[in-house]
## 1
Amino acid sequence: MSIYDTLNDRQKQAVLQTSGPVLILAGAGSGKTRVLTHRIAYLIDQEGVNPYQIMAITFTNKAAGEMRERVDQIVGFGSEQIWVSTFHSTCVRILRRYIDRLGYDNNFTIYDTDDQKGVMKEICKKLQIDTKMLKERTILSAISSAKDELIDPVQYEMQNAYDYNGGRIAKAYKEYQAVLHKNNALDFDDLIMKTVELFKTDAKVLENYQERFRYIMVDEYQDTNTAQFELIRLLADKYRNLCVVGDDDQSIYKFRGANIRNILDFEKVYPEACVIKLEQNYRSTQVVLDAANAVIKNNTGRKEKALWTDKTEGNRIHLRQFDTAYEEAEYIAGDVAKKSRSEQVQYGDCAVLYRTNAQARLLEERFIMEGIPYDVIGGTNFYARREIKDILAYLKTIDNGRDDVAVKRIINIPKRGIGMTTIVRVQDYADSRQISFYDALREADQIMTIGRSASKLQPFVNMIQAFRSKQEFYSLSELVKDILETTGYVQELEASNEEDAADRIENIDELLSKVVAYEETHDEATLSEFLEEVALVADIDRVGESDNKVLLMTLHSAKGLEFPHVYLAGLEDGIFPSYMTIMSDDPLEVEEERRLAYVGITRAKDDLTITYARQRMIRGETQYNPVSRFVREIPPLLMDDKPPVQKRPDHREYDEDSRERGFFKAKPFGMGAVETEKPYRRVADSLSDTVFDKPAAGRQNGEAAFGRKFEPAVQGKPKAIVRPKRTAVENQPYITRASQGVGAVSLEPVGNKTLAYGVGDRVRHMRYGTGTVLKIEPGPRDSQVTVMFDEAGQKIMYAGFAKLVKV
DNA sequence: CGTACTAGTCTTTTT
DNA sequence: GACTAGTACG
């Protein structure tokens, strides 16, 4: 009996087929990670392959870490020699060694979206690009797509010379690359592209890696873009032992360049490829699988597969409709609480999945009220928070003085009286001398134009220089502590009356413990390596760190995970699928969303609950949306409730309708960039009239159905409007003037006069828990409330923002 | 040079 | 609704 006997026939075949190109089409939950890890073990144990010659590539650090762990378990000896990592860290590792051959320093820095935006902003200024017409974002995403397709600035210019906007983007692209090069920085896309460039320009280096990595495995292959495909193709070109694992039905990253053709055309590129389908699902019940299959079969151009399981039929899918998103959140939190009380359900068995990060907020508030431990994955990355980026900018400056973006970020943080004018003048000087911004600072006394400001620059330079020399004998954490102390960063925060100063300080503490943890796991923790690791972590990598908490995340983040109890929230046309895709002329966009629905459904092991709300607040606008078309694609008998009958089930008709009525201008194209003045609300308004057979329960008041627009006209019946506007309104110190007899409906925080609590009262705060009010200081606009929290200690906060609830 | 307020934008998803 | 960049003012 060997470890391979636990595999089914197909899986075994995939493990044993070690030579030549192999495409494993692995349906959701079909045990692909098991196959990959066993395959690695088989290569080493049975075929005597040197672990050193094996490479496994994934998309997230989490997936890489998981695979590493499982490989370590079954491979015993030499497993640490296998390269198991993400595309990005693989490339960084290669580039750190060889990028000098492309004219960069090997200690390059990695720019995140923020840094990129900063660079682009300056470029637009320099090239006199009107950012109202052509936004930094737009340019950057055009550049990113170009890089995904391995198109360099020169090619881009050739392809877009005839187009006005294209031409400008081409110029910006060229300039952008020049700036990054000057700053010795690479962005995310460069990591892949430059590695490919390296392989193509330096045959020796390529040969070296080809010879080393004789067995290459790629996970989530359906998500690779052209550049990543090329990277793999080059690496595998000599020995052609390339095994890719993927599921075309789970391709959900087109927006970041994923090319579904990579998987669909694999057999064309590798005619000798062996194709193996894994269709037995070990995860979900038959009901869940039937639902998933029923939805995905509406897509065209997919590789035919049908998941099956020998697990039991299972519960029917729970379908719940609500009047408002608020009630939806209330139900989900309540249901989780109920389950955890009565059944053998742990919080960690539950996950709530949604289409957009913004949807997390309502759910979060509700989970807090229920006292359920939860974790929100995604949204803003920890390392993208302002205070964290500030500290990292110090570290980057110490590590690599050529990173102008980092230097400029911190030159006046904390405040040193160095303003825009001085910075611009120093930059001019640097430009004229062809030196970096930091080097210009060091010569500040030479710069005539800045006059007496030079005296403010000198201490800054001295401080950085001091850090640099201390770095020699300091540990990483000592360095960070020194930075915090010398700059007085934390003191400045403490002194400031910014409302979230306490959170910021907490984050800094967390950073410090991450630094310490890094030192503990890395023998010779260098600053460069730390910065690099930090640049490449994604939020999803945190999953598993938190134990026994309900996880809240987007459908995208949920890919690759599984939970006994899954809630799919906000299943409404317009949310999921999003308006963007419904409106799109390209029907493939809806297909991509359908794959996302497929991913969502197949996350559930036992129990799936689908919820949707008639009314939802999006970006300050109330929308009315019908149930998602994807729910309608699920056979009703698989669900415990039916979606409501609609007069006109096809959404496209509404679009035409609105177009006729002049609500829609043609899609913006070319340079014309036609205005699109809040088109969505209009659709929503027109929908609310036509969608439902009977009036939605939430709008007996008539006007309420039309959303905020008409609110001022409503007299005396605030409830219907107030409710969806803010969660748990009745518990909060918000009082409508109507109820005070003033007349007009208002939702202003009324502050000092009408706080629902006083000194000595017990109150609850969203984050800090319960505490006692010590002091209330009335201010002109809002009162400052001092609260001694049981857990979090004493905090001073503005009443209007703190949303304290009397308990 | 720093601040405090206003106007405009945004998001659909992320390594 | 929330965040950010830009502006007017001290």
Note: The radius of gyration of chain A is 29 Å.
## 2
Amino acid sequence: MSNERSFAYTPRVTRRQEILQTAGDLFQRNGYHATSMREIARNVQLQGSSLYAHIQSKEELLRNIVDEAAETFLAAARQVDGSLPPPERLRGLVRAHLGVIRDRLPHATVFFHEWAHLPPDLQRELIERRDAYQAIFRGTVEDGARDGSFVVEDAPLATLFVLSSLNWTYQWLDPYGRLSLDALAERYASLLLGALGADPTDGRGRP
Amino acid sequence: MSNERSFAYTPRVTRRQEILQTAGDLFQRNGYHATSMREIARNVQLQGSSLYAHIQSKEELLRNIVDEAAETFLAAARQVDGSLPPPERLRGLVRAHLGVIRDRLPHATVFFHEWAHLPPDLQRELIERRDAYQAIFRGTVEDGARDGSFVVEDAPLATLFVLSSLNWTYQWLDPYGRLSLDALAERYASLLLGALGADPTDGRGRP
DNA sequence: CCTACCGATCGGTAGG
DNA sequence: CCTACCGATCGGTAGG
């Protein structure tokens, strides 16, 4: 009859996002391999098998999370005006990076911790984007060395140094901490500009 | 009779070390939860169950590795003479930290990535040692701020900055890289001293 | 150090 | 979205 129940289930659009966010939180807290699909399902009030109406596999969850994080970092850095003087540009990059950490802490953490558990072809793609990200920083350091706003004897190492100090911040940055994002970014950038030998009397550097 | 085979097996002393080192390598490469006991066993030419003649559990492996790494970091920092002037002391701490990374890369990586998978009481103990480690750095930064060898407006943040730049180095430090440990540590310390506003004309700072 | 084995749990599928 | 279920694999034990 016309009132027969259809078994072709059409998932809501938002449900997938809910699953991805929950997976991100659990992967952040317990790690990818230590998180079971049933655990994710429980947290979104589903049976384990029902997840597969919304996603294809556990790996797809990780891929989505890591991919979005990589894209967010890269997009934020690309927002920074590349024609700014190197010190201002670095301030912008620091602010961008810390902003992503603050706003996307679970995804960023999963990105840093679990990307190596993806298959080799996806890893290669991620490494490419990481290199593109690093190139933005390296270009800034090198431009500053060239125009004299920075004093660096080893630009590749200085770039690694800058990125190291930023990358680790996901370990301690508290989105609800004592400092506003702007204040934190300003101080962090000031420390980095000091490391790069920028003139402390120039602009907002230390007096 | 007197020649009966005894089934009480007495493990060799070195075998345990071999298992621990292999586990460290595999945990580093694939992560703790993604590494199976049978995989470890295969790499030391044993049956999976035979591992338990040498160790008590998989968790004990992780505990040993993480514990040794934490102890190595702390011991290295404590080797640095606390009566040195703050800039020299920081140079020593940088050199100590990078030395541990270089010499104990697998264990250090597992420490940073997997310590959160240990039970809460062990986590607390590790956090205590991490705090002790950080306190050595904070003391150095504060001493330098007090005696004028550093210029820092926010000592807690500056300490986090120093530790962040060091902690991330396990991601890229190549024990067989282009720079010797001494050269690398010298340059890295020089960057950090610049961040802390140390007088560049003082000692081995930038001219 | 091995053989044999166990209960639990895993990611995922069939079918409706 | 659920019920029922599968093969594979997990960490670990018994017993010698």
Note: Residues 7, 9, 11, 46-47, 49-50, 53 of chain A lie near DNA strand D (CB under 10 Å from a C1').
